[in-house]
Request: fold
Amino acid sequence: MFKKILIANRGEIALRIIRCCRELGIDTVAVYSTADEASLHVELATEAVCIGGPKAADSYLNIRNILSAAMYTGCEAIHPGFGFLSENSEFAALCRECGLVFIGPDAGVIEKMGNKAAARSLMMENHIPVVPGSEGYVTTLEEAEKTAARIGYPVLVKAAAGGGGRGMRKAFCKEELKSAFSSAKAEAKACFGNNDMYMEKLIVNPKHIEFQILADSFGNVIHLGERDCSIQRKNQKLIEESPSKAINKELRKVMGGIAVKAAKAAGYKNAGTIEFVLDQTGDFYFIEMNTRIQVEHPVTEMITGIDLIKEQIRIAAGLPMKYKQEEIRLEGYAMECRINAEDPAKNFRPSPGTVDFLHLPAGYGVRVDTALYNGYTTSPFYDSMMAKVIVHGKSRLEVIRRMRRALEEMVIEGVVTNLDLQHLILYQPDFMRGNYNTGFIEKHLAELLKLHEEVYQCKKSQ
Reply:
């Protein structure tokens, strides 16, 4: 087992990894930007090293400085968390060249699966169902128009190197395709430095279902059930739950088996996620693989009792998995709400600021992953997510009621958040019945924002 690990990340995921390492008796090195000098992960790690200025490019994306910090402090491994360099194949390769273990899959696998067009081709070669679309890259508008004519509208233009909903545009007719194609390419170039595009048939309002995978160096690959991530705004997840109300035992076995097959085809090791869309007829299609730990991993931890970060570290250290597929049990239900520093009333504009007062919910079946504390100033330089509230219960209804209670207890003063909006979603009849898909927010946003304004005015008058 490792003696010292550097965490190449910040915020709640850095804290999550630090806490796990402390339980395993592993020393930790936090890296931080000048904007994060007063952050909690800096205080809780065994050591901390400043790696640059507040912009991510100068710090959390600065490969040279991160590797220098790891070698200077005598680390044996690096955990990338999610975001930043977690799916950067060059970083994973350089870790190995420097004699450091990258806690994640091999660089070649990251590169292969990180390119969505290449991953799609690999799945097709292994007879895994994919959404109808282009056979490779689509480089010009003319090629895009020909592909759309072949597969039929609506279509989805996607960045091959994309992720997090960026570099992705919908087109419902030929007239919309030109704008969708050019804007997707421009965003992909700005976000990923790569504007290679491909296209898929747009499955209108599907369920977004992902399967958690664990794979070790001994050829053992298992899945830990699914997460329903269909509550999204502009392809950004807001609420995740498990198990999905749309998946029965038989379908779970089939989809889980395909997810394992996909991971084996990729030669995958460590924790990862196979993502599918599930249409209204029950057909499902592979869309991508995330070669890292997911933001929503606590949902799976709550229903399986398996610490995914510990398993990541064990696998990276060359140890075999402790679990076999037949030993995995999904107990009860779990749900996660992402609390973001953004203003729903102003088109979800980010709202960084100082937390004047903070009270976190607690009680039976409630977990909060956050790096917030009283007096903490959220930064405008990074993602707006402030906290994740996760609850567990025996039934879906119990989980909804427990999440309502948890969000009612939560107080974050000084910063505008989406807390009230999340609370309102939990009362929406379609959501309560599990009758929702990726079109839920678009369908109900006006109604939710109206209620949100009423809640705001009520609180203001008190």
Summary: The mean pLDDT is 95. The chain has three domains: 4-103, 132-201, 207-461. Residues 132-201 form a domain with the Dna Ligase; domain 1 fold (CATH 3.30.1490.20). The two ends are 55 Å apart (CA to CA).
